[in-house]
Amino acid sequence: TSVTISGGTVTNMVIGGNMLNNKSGAGSVLNDGGSHSVTITGGVIGGIVVGGNYIQTSTALDAGQLTQVGSSSVTVSGGTFNGSIYGASSYQSSNASKGTTFQGNVSITIDSSSNSIVFASANSTGTTGSIFAGGHGYTTIEGNATVTFTGLGSNLEFTGYLSGASSYLKRSQIGTATTGTSSLVFNSFTGDLNADTIMMFESLTIDSNSCVSFTGENADLSTVSTWNLTQYAADATKTTLDWTPNSGQTQTNYTWNDFTGDTLNLTMSDGADSWTVIEFTTYEHQMNGFGSNMTVVLNGEAAAWDSDLSAWTSTNYSLFVDSESSSLVMRRGTIA
Q1: pLDDT one digit per residue (tens) for the chain, 336 residues
Q2: How many whole angstroms separate alpha carbon 88 and alpha carbon 1?
Q3: Alpha-carbon separation of residue 268 from 73, 146, 329 (angstroms)
Q4: CB 263 within 8 Å of CB 294
Q5: Which of 210, 243, 204 is nearest to 225 (CA)?
Q6: Rounded to two decimals, what is the model's pTM?
Q7: Given the DSSP bridges, would you call strands 90-92 and 9-10 parallel, antiparallel or unpaired?
Q8: SS3 for the chain, per residue?
């Protein structure tokens, strides 16, 4: 099924798939024949947006009793949202702690290239509009879940939650969120991402046409294990990821990271001698784990940890933390 909204006002929710009431039964499987998509280019959306199905039951299902088979996508290139966006399905039951399984890939794309996209800072219930790669409730994704931002940060008003999982899952449940990979991707995006909270992603990709600022107080990248970062091609002096809260905001204990066991794939522009990969505020929060227990690839060259230099070095490149500028820096050649 495919739903497209280009303007006007929708007072209720938007559902990409089916609306099912009193769906229950142990081992029940909902195979509705493939993909669902929602495309919104403008208008005012009063309720939530669900890429998949909306399921409501008076029976408390055990997790996994109801399996949905298919895929879903939500693409937004304009509009005002008074509720949140969910890539997968919404599951409502008399026992909110029970959930379902969604077998398939889910994706959300936020494209602010041409039009403004506004998420209400507080709707009538006091809830800020948020983005969840997974579902509404306890939903496990048996596949990949991807959220992609493209366009201009200046066209995007978004201060809510940005999660790579379903709405009821906590940080400690990252292993149950997806069987594939939950990815946050910036593809030709420049400017600020003002989400108050970023959490539950396993992969972060910033391409050569992007430079991003995380300005919120609670950007938790500790679950990210794969970093695919490329130097901004249009201006090599710009930082690829500026990870510092806005002036007047307080960095919290949830703004943190742990590089231990992570893989960093970094690509510096041809002809550039130096690259500020990440700017940070507090080393122990955001650079925690930077050291020998990582895998680092610099412009396709496998790097090795040099304990004397406290840096990663390959044949032609080096990667180190510059404490004076509070930056993670990649350089052509050695650190001399």
Answers
A1: 899 999 999 999 999 988 776 555 544 556 665 789 999 999 999 999 999 888 776 655 544 456 777 899 999 999 999 999 999 888 766 555 556 778 889 999 999 999 999 998 855 555 679 999 988 877 788 899 999 999 999 999 999 999 998 887 655 455 455 678 999 999 999 999 999 989 999 999 999 999 999 998 889 999 999 999 999 999 999 999 999 876 545 555 556 899 999 999 999 999 899 999 999 988 888 999 999 999 999 999 999 999 999 999 999 999 999 999 999 999 999 776
A2: 14
A3: 32, 25, 11
A4: yes
A5: 204
A6: 0.92
A7: unpaired
A8: CEEEECCCEECCCEECCCEEECCCCCCCEEEEEEEEEEEECCCEECCCEECCCEEECCCCCCCCCCEEEEEEEEEECCEEECCCEECCCEEECCCCCCCEEEECCEEEEEEECCCCEEECCCCCCCCCCCEECCCECCEEEECCEEEEEEEEHHHEECCCEEECCCCCCCHHHHHHHECCCEEEEEEEEEEEECCCEEECCCEEEECCCCEEEECCCEEECCCCCEEEEECCCCCCCCCCEECCCCCCCCCCCCCECCCCCCEEEEECCCCCCEEEEEECCCHHHHCCCCCCCCEEEECCEECEEECCCCEEECCCEEEEEECCCCEEEEEECCCC
- Going by DSSP bridges, is the β-strand pair 304-306/14-15 parallel, antiparallel, or unpaired? unpaired
> Phi then psi for 287, rounded to 5 degrees?
-110, 10
Sequence letter at residue 20: L
d(CA 331, CA 77): 37
